[in-house]
Amino acid sequence: MTKSLLFVAVATLFSLPTVYSQNVKTETTPYTYIQLPTNPLAKSITGYQSTVQAVYEAENQKKNAAYEAEMAAAEADYQRELAAYPAKQKAAEDKYAAELAEYEKKSLATKVVEKQILNENNKPVKQVPPAPYKRYVAKPVLQRSYDYAALAGTYLTLGGYENSSINAVKIEVTLNGFDYTKPVQLSEVKKEVTRVNGTSTTNNVTYYHVEFTYRHTMSVKVTLPDGKELFFLSPQELNTYKTYKSAETKTSQTVNEDQLVQTYEEKILQENLKFIGDLVNDRIGFKPTERQGKLSYVKSKDETYADLMKAYNEGSSALKTLKDDEVGSKAKLMAVAQTYQTVLLESNLNDKKARIDKEVTTMIYFNLLEIYFATRDVAAAEKTLSSLNSMDLSNGDRKEKEAMEKVIIDLKKRVAANGL
User: Fold this and answer.
1) 15-24, Cβ contacts within 8 angstroms, sequence gap of 24 or more
2) Residue 11's pLDDT band (boundaries 50, 70, 90)?
3) I want to staple 241 with a disulfide (CB 3.0 to 4.6 A). Which of 4, 41, 87, 213 is the partner?
4) Once rounded to an integer, what is the mean pLDDT over residues 9-14?
């Protein structure tokens, strides 16, 4: 009887359905892809040339010229006065000698009366003329000059095109100058509560910080090889003042104005040039663009999800080589996508015990979206989004889907604009 029961128990155990325990892990997978332009250039255009110029350089030159002229005038005045100084000295000596001679002609009694009774001291005093000196000329306050060729070479490259004058578009950026308010120290009184031996005390505490606003406006003009203007932009984003605010302290802060201003002048120059470079590439360049992609896998202690782990590893590897081997990487990614599509045939959204349940199915769809974005397969991406739209997603997955929808919509516009 006992053996019979044991046999039935073992038989029942083996007849139970397999229960899968899913543990989905998502990893950030950074990779670089080529972003298509929204307004691609004609195929005949093969190069670009970029320049940076500053409108304030002309004003700087005027100020420097005025300064040099004033310095020259000050030097001429000084040399003229220096040449005339000996004559002034002699004239002063002669005048003193003559006045002293007249004074000596007076009687002693007259001198005593003038000094003691009339309280007048009429004895002449030698008047020495002041020595010549060169008048001070203040140096002009100038906008900072830069190595404009180096700036253009660093920030104004055009992805997909050679830096060449042959069949080239011209990218010209104009700097309007750094504008800022004088850094000042501001204070604010805050109430702070301290507790000692169970007793709370509220005190007014003064906090100090340094603050100033700054901006550097710029514009960009792009012209075609025939000289026709393609577009001109003066980005509104660069017209808005930014605010620097130091960390608060309970003690008064000292301000090295020159160093502080110079630091943020350089910072905003670099930021704004990068902004304009990205803006131009967004329109007409094939820009290598970094993306923080995401791929997921199912963590398992056995070989249950070995196929998905292999797909994850091969997909991650292919994404990382996309920049240097676009053709080969895309072929590998499409093979991974085919693996995912095959696995999806097992999908069972209503069975939590299924190997490819709702959670794993959702994971695969998001992996496919990343792959289809990287391979520019808009049709497949839209089909995948449609599948996700038919599912009851969590709030987190819904937000992720909405973010990917925006990415795919943008990709679709770029693919269409480039006739791909």
Assistant:
1) 17/353, 18/353, 18/355, 19/353, 20/304, 20/353, 20/354, 20/355, 20/357, 21/300, 22/298, 22/357, 22/359, 22/360, 23/298, 23/299, 23/300, 24/296, 24/297, 24/298, 24/299, 24/359, 24/360, 24/363
2) very low
3) 213
4) 41
Average pLDDT of the chain?
A: 91
From CA 411, how far away is CA 418, in angstroms rounded? Answer: 11
Of residues 91 and 358, more confidently modeled: 358
For the chain, the three-class secondary structure string (H helix, E strand, C coil) is CHHHHHHHHHHHHHHCCCCCCCCEEEEEEEEEEEECCCCCCCCCCCEEEEEEEECHHHHHHHHHHHHHHHHHHHHHHHHHHHHHHHHHHHHHHHHHHHHHHHHHCCCHHHHHHHHHHCCCCCCCCCCCCCCCCCCCCCCCCCCCCCCHHHHHHHHCCCCCCEECCCCEEEEEEEEEEEEECCCEEEEEEEEEEEEECCEEEEEEEEEEEEEEEEEEEEEEEEECCCCCEEEEECCHHHCCCEEEECCCECCCCCCCHHHHHHHHHHHHHHHHHHHHHHHHHHHHCCEEEEEEEEEEEECCCCCCCHHHHHHHHHHHHHHHCCCCCHHHHHHHHHHHHHHHHHHHCCCCCCCCCCCCCHHHHHHHHHHHHHHHHHHCCHHHHHHHHHHHHCCCCCHHHHHHHHHHHHHHHHHHHHHHHCCC
Res 301: pLDDT: 87
Calculate the CA dihedral of residues 44, 45, 47, 52 and round it to 10 degrees: 160
**How long, in residues, is the chain?**
420
Residue matched to tokens 């002693």? 108
Provide the pLDDT for residue 15.
42
- Structure-block tokens of residue 291: 């993306």
Compute the distance between CA of residue 399 and CA of residue 107 in angstroms, rounded to an integer. 113
